[in-house]
Amino acid sequence: MKRVENLLNLDGRAAVVTGAGQGVGRQVAIHLASYGARVLVNDYFPDRAETVAEEINGFGGEAVPHQADVTSFQATEAMMEAASSQFGSLDILVNNAGNLGPVAPDAADVMKPFWESTPDDWERPLSVNLYGVLNCTRHALGRMVAGQGGGSIVTIISEASRYGDPCLEAYAGAKAGAAGIMRSVARETARFGVRANCVAIGATRTPATAEAFENEQAMKASLRLYPLRRVGEPEDVANAVLFLASEAASYVTGQVYAVNGGFLFTL
Is there a catalytic annotation at residue 171? Predict the structure, then answer.
């Protein structure tokens, strides 16, 4: 019987992590690299990708930055080709890039009632959270299936996709759609040795959520929904991704793995 630490070892594996320039994506990239994976660090903003890649290389890992917009079919194809060319294979894809929608300086726009929203408000969350997953997964599978012997795809979704979240209909719908994509991919590609799963996260402390968590009253109200009485940290999510990407999860596919502090849905 293999020890768990051996099952988690990713030596020789090549990974692409989208939206890895900060927050959850950054920690996922660092986690995978610290367990031996060679990582292509993707972000829409090139300076963020470069900073994280430098951080990984600085502790002895192996990483390369790659700027690409996941909503572009052509750009994501080039990104997967870059990873395959750089590392010789593509074994792990983490679909982490996400977008809530238009956010004004006071964050008021993202909370507008759905009946006041427009197709322009829906475009970016649908494009990033749904088409981004389609694009990246499609191009990764072309390499994982064709003679490579398999791989693992992990897509980050939100509890909003399972329970809904007021004023985030486009975001929640896109994340739910991403879960459906993973279930279909899991069934279609299992015979090729590919596993596809989701990690559904609750409230998680990232640069994007930092301002909201500084509001003490809102924080107390939010924590009432979390039995563990704390918000998630990027490390919590990265631990789950590491598990699903590794051989420790070799019999896990088509699943939604909740990392949510015991989140309790309530109206």
Answer: yes
User: Is 198:245 a contact under the CB 8 Å cutoff?
Assistant: no
Instruction: Quote the pLDDT of residue 139.
Output: 97
pTM score over 0.90? yes
Residue labelled with tokens 């991403």: 178
Q: Which of 131, 163, 171, 251 is catalytic?
A: 171
Q: Is 43 helix (H, G, I), strand (E, B) or coil?
A: strand
**Contact partners, residue 151, CB within 8 Å, separation at least 6:** 90, 91, 92, 93, 140, 143, 144, 193, 194, 195
Nearest to 242 by CA among 59, 88, 34: 34
Q: What are phi and psi of 114, to 5 degrees?
A: -60, -35
How many whole angstroms separate alpha carbon 19 and alpha carbon 26? 8
Give the residues of the chain that fall short of pLDDT 50.
104-109, 267
